[in-house]
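User: My advisor asked me to double-check a structure prediction for Glycoside hydrolase family 1 protein before group meeting. I don't want to rely on an old file, so could you generate it fresh from this sequence?
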Amino acid sequence: MKKFEQTFPENFLWGGAIAACQSEGAFDLDGKGLTVADIAVKHDKTVPRSVRKLITAERLEKVLQETDDRKFPKRHGIDFYHRFKEDIAWCAEMGFKVFRFSIAWGRIFPNGDDAKANMKGLAFYDQVIAEVIKHGMEPLITINHFDMPMNLVTQYGGWKNRQLIDFYVTYAKTLFERYGEKVNYWIAFNEINGARFNVFYSTGIVKDDEATYLQDCYQAAHHQFVASALAKKALSKVSKEAMLGCMVAKFTTYPATCKPEDALEAQKNEQMDNYYFTDTVIRGEYPPYAARFWHENGIELQIFEEDEAVLKRYPADFLAFSYYMSSISAADKENFEETDGNLKNTLKNPHLKASEWGWQIDPIGLRYTLNDLYNRYSIPLFIVENGIGAEDVLEDGKIDDDYRIDYLSAHIKQIEEAIKDGVQLIGYTTWSAIDIVSSGTSEMAKRYGFIYVDQDDLGHGTLKRIPKKSFHWYKAVIAANGLGLD
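Assistant: Sure, here is a fresh prediction for Glycoside hydrolase family 1 protein from the sequence you gave:
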């Protein structure tokens, strides 16, 4: 019988997260190739998500011809490439037990299909991993975090092309062989359900032919499923202890009312936004509701017999997810207000407050989500992103971000409740450890970190690092292992 846990276990991994494409900069140094992240232009919160995320061949060609690097903030990030020792030291001062970061695919294989790895790229991550371990932290590495090499888009058409499986596996094997004995936790793809809500940056698929777009998206997802399983196979040959996780952006959805039609709509949205991806990667086979979805949407996936075998034999070891908000579903949407703040267009829950960017705040939903996922899969969970983006103001050399403390405190309390409910949780890495360029808008104004970075949306500033009020609060939380939040 499972022992009742009253609070966070002693070995709980507290930490924070960043991504290479939002932090490193140095986009053209030491042999790094251009990636999809490097062509993301800056937007603010007034620009609809449908505009920011839609990439057509025409728009892609125009962006690739642009010569002004300052229009692309992710090319410069916060200069983690040259300042990683300082940034990792700040995280260690907070008491991090784990530091989540990603490796830039284009820094290891500049074109994605290169015959040999870029040794300067590997040497850089040798230093990063060594620095993390030196400070007593576990490295949690995402293999591909929305930054696939542009060459794989322009020459191969992105993940709809089956050849990308081999390119990715070669890349993953290179990382495992180099770092496998030092890294215990890996994530194959950041938010693998991005094939549904962040298509271009997740899969490299451009939207031109409406008739084949959905087909391409789900074929791309299938290839990523197979690549993830093959990566797990490769990791198991290098290390018996290391774990490979499946990660999704968790879209927690409630029925808008107690009408059966709304409950059914919520269930369908949960299935297609979340479980289609996690069921396949964790259970090792497509869920039964997938067939109807394919039939009704004219999707005919090319699934080889060996694909089914490898999916079944090499499922993910743990389920990682990002959690920022929840939403509601209704069969009849006319009586509900919409928002595109919840990572995608959804209905707004009138019972919840929202952030400056329209992301609805639901701490209890995190407990609900943890219970839901653990009861469904019975494998360890890992919250690898949770936080609030805000326009932090520097006054007299300080940032009093009480709103961030309130947000994180409320969520951590619900995590503790989920642990009492019996959920097995490996750790919690907030988004983000330090201010970085926003993933969705490529702006600096939307800040998530415990450490302020003196840089504006245009890249101007000293890049000085300044701890916020939340820095000291989180340090105390970690020291108390989550206790004493009130």
